[in-house]
Design brief:
228 residues; alpha+beta; NADH Oxidase; 4-stranded antiparallel sheet; 3-stranded mixed sheet
Amino acid sequence: MAQIPTPAFRPLVHERPSIEQSRARLGEFLEAMRRRRSVRDFSREPVPLDIVDAAIAAAGTAPSGANRQPWRFVLVRDPALKRRIREAAEAEEREFYGRRAPAAWLEALAPLGTDWRKPFLETAPCLVVVFRIDYEPALMADGTEGNAKNYYVQESVGIAVGILLTALHLAGLATLTHTPSPMGFLAEVLARPKHERPFLLIPVGYPAPGALVPDLTKKALDEIRVLA
């Protein structure tokens, strides 16, 4: 049972680099992130647990509404669990590609060459399944047990996932953001409590030798930034 914390304050620890250092750091970071791609061909080579744990810990530093930190990261490495997840995901994806997806959506996906088959859910050495927590059992201020509502959950978890993907990439690992629809089976397979809802499934590992990715481009700065 969670205890709702009493806020406290302390002096901010902040490093302010020189303008030159800022430009150099951001230049290196931008070039590194330009090399990040979604990968579907993974090596079976194991990934050190401490590296993935450090990336998840970095994700846990994300800002969140009222500091409720409404996320859970389930790290799956067991082959039997990965197989169950793949089987359930492919069942949903067959329905999606065969019946549920609008024609316009399938047309948009066509250049990526994706279909219902998801072998990467088994070949990737680990999966990070991200859950959102809209509320959680808590001891309330009056001493009674109840449900503490979390705020800005979608935004908070999205920010945390962005940090996670960035951290894994900087560690030399490949990732894919996979969203089988619907995702309720993940809570069942992983035996998560009812107040945790699946948000995203992220295979993590090293790219397979010779891995291929779609030849894509990103929008230029002047297409995404507006000076006002």
